[in-house]
Structure formats: C-alpha cells, structure tokens
C-alpha cells in the first residue's frame, strides 16, 4: 500500500491502509469506534489440504512494495517457510513467483489456515475493506500473529500538534476516509490481531518528495508537518510485532523526526541525489498535519529504525 499522491497533492495524507496506528490497550476513542460489520463474499488464498502448514508460514494480503519487503525479511529469518501472496489481479503473479511468493487471486476461503498473516492492501481497490479484513482473519490459524498495517491518519489532529499511541482518533462519522480504517482496525482487534498505524511511507523513488519534485511547484502550504517512516523500517517493525505474538493491540510506526513539507524539499534539493530542483509551495491555507511519536511502541517491541530520519536517509546531517 502507498500514498495516493496525485489525489492528495494539496494536503498529502498518508497511505490509506495504508499505510496504521498502542502498546497498551486501545484508547477509549478506539473502543467508541467499534460496531458490527456487514458480511462479505469470501476472499482468500487457496492452500491445498494435502499441504502441511509450517509453523512460520506467512500470508501477505497485498504484496506490494511494503509486502514484498516484509516477505524478503521474513524469509531471511525463516528460510524454510512458505510465503503466500493474495492479490486483486493476476498482473504481478509472475513477479511474485520469481521472488518466492506463492500468488493467488480472490477466491474461496482456505481449508488450512496459516499462523502468520499481514494485511498490507490499501482500501481504494475494494468495496468492502472491513470485509476483506474479516476474510483475512478467517485465514489466520490463531497461532503466530495477525497484523494489519493501518495509518496514523486516524488520529484526530490537524494543527501540527503532537500525537502518540494513546492520542484520540477521529470520531466515527466525521470522515469516510478514517471511518474505513477504524472499521477495519475494529475487525482485526476483535479477531485478536494487531494494528500498526504507519506514518507516511517513503524510499528514494517513492514518497511525497518524488511527486512534489516532479511538479516543481505545488499549490499547498509549506508548513504542514509530515511524520514519516522508511519502507524498510515499516517492514522491520511489522515483523518485530508479529514475532511478539501479541493480541488485540495497536502500535505506531514513525521515525519520530517529523518535518514540514518545506523542510522535506529543502533537504531533497540539498542532497544532490535527485535530478531537477523543487521550486516551492505556493499555498497559504488548508489543514496542518501531526507530529507522531512512537516511543511507547519502541520501548515495548524493542525496535529502532534503520533510518532515524529522512534527513539521515539522504546522507545529510540534522
């Protein structure tokens, strides 16, 4: 799952699963968001009943950029495991097969469930996102871990203020965009899975900086704060959480070094690692962002990012 840059060019929100956000019990605001979900048609991966399921086998729902990095890191730790990838189309099945992921389309529920499931698919390719999460939960054996990569967009802050794991969420009914994420989280938590609320995902050739650089000038306010996390760090945090085999918890993934739009692009220009030069932001109004902090997640999971900040990722000094 990645951000929909063009659709959100003026405000840049985080990816819509995307990419989630507590190392303690979910906050009261999360519990207020819970309510029954409608049923959905089956959506699963076919596993032969004659096939034995390994204790470290993994199903990745939505093996895109993030999911493939998860697969690579997971196989490094579990070289004998089977990794399944569930997709909406067959467009990338040959690619998945080449990298050792067993692909499948939407289809009947599995007869044999897998011990580890991570859901990385974005909500914009489905009419029933919570239903898709329910089906993913049905493919989980209840062992290992079930993890949903959600988004820090669910936090109710648009004034560049600070947010942590326990900060309140946007109330249900206030935003269709956050409603779908909170409903999906609800399905996961009630199934005993965990949610990882991710900040803005990036790598060198993907992220808001790439889109803005391609435009040169963007009609958006420069002072909106963006919290970020590198794709590799999002994957390593997700795996660290799954290895803990926790139940019904919500965590946050970010680098704890939020930057404004202007600061991001100043660093891009200064790095010398990109062709072209960004000219500037011209907007003066619109909502602001949020400064995410995941200190509680780090303390409980024992995780630190490979890339402590976007600045250091670019090889620059803070």
TrEMBL record:
> What is the name of this protein?
NAD-dependent epimerase/dehydratase domain-containing protein
**Family classification:** Belongs to the NAD(P)-dependent epimerase/dehydratase family.
Q: What keywords are annotated for this sequence in UniProt?
A: Isomerase, NAD
> In which domain of life is the source organism classified?
Eukaryota
- Annotated PANTHER family: EPIMERASE-RELATED
Native species? Aegilops tauschii subsp. strangulata (Goatgrass)
SUPFAM superfamilies with a match to the protein in the record: NAD(P)-binding Rossmann-fold domains
Q: Does the keyword tRNA-binding apply?
A: no
Read off the lineage from the record.
Eukaryota, Viridiplantae, Streptophyta, Embryophyta, Tracheophyta
Q: Which GO terms describe its molecular function?
A: isomerase activity
Which regions form coiled coils?
none
Q: Does the record bear Isomerase in its keywords?
A: yes
């Amino acid at each position: 799952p990645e951000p929909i840059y063009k659709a959100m060019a003026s405000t840049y929100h985080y990816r819509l699963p995307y990419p989630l956000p507590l190392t303690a019990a979910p906050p009261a605001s999360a519990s207020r968001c819970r309510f029954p979900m409608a049923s959905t048609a089956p959506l699963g991966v076919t596993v032969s009943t004659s096939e034995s399921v390994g204790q470290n086998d993994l199903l990745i729902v939505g093996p895109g950029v993030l999911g493939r990095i998860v697969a690579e890191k997971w196989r490094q730790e579990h070289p004998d495991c089977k990794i399944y990838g569930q997709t909406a189309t067959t467009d990338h099945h040959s690619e998945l097969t080449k990298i050792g992921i067993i692909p499948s389309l939407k289809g009947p529920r599995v007869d044999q469930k897998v011990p580890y499931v991570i859901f990385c698919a974005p909500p914009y390719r489905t009419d029933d996102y919570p239903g898709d999460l329910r089906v993913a939960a049905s493919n989980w054996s209840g062992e290992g871990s079930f993890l949903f990569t959600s988004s820090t967009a669910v936090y109710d802050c648009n004034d560049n203020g600070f947010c942590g794991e326990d900060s309140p969420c946007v109330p249900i009914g206030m935003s269709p965009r956050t409603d779908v994420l909170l409903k999906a989280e609800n399905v996961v938590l009630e199934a005993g899975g965990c949610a990882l609320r991710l900040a803005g995902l990036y790598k060198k050739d993907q992220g808001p900086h790439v889109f803005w650089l391609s435009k040169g000038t963007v009609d958006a306010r420069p002072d909106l704060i963006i919290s970020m996390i590198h794709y590799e760090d999002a994957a390593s945090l997700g795996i660290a959480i799954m290895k803990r085999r926790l139940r019904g918890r919500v965590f946050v993934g970010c680098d704890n070094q939020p930057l404004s739009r202007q600061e991001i692009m100043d660093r891009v220009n200064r790095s010398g690692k990109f062709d072209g030069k960004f000219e500037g932001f011209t907007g003066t109004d619109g909502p602001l962002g949020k400064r995410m902090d995941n200190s509680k997640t780090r303390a409980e999971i024992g995780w630190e990012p490979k890339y402590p900040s976007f600045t250091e990722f670019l090889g620059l000094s803070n």
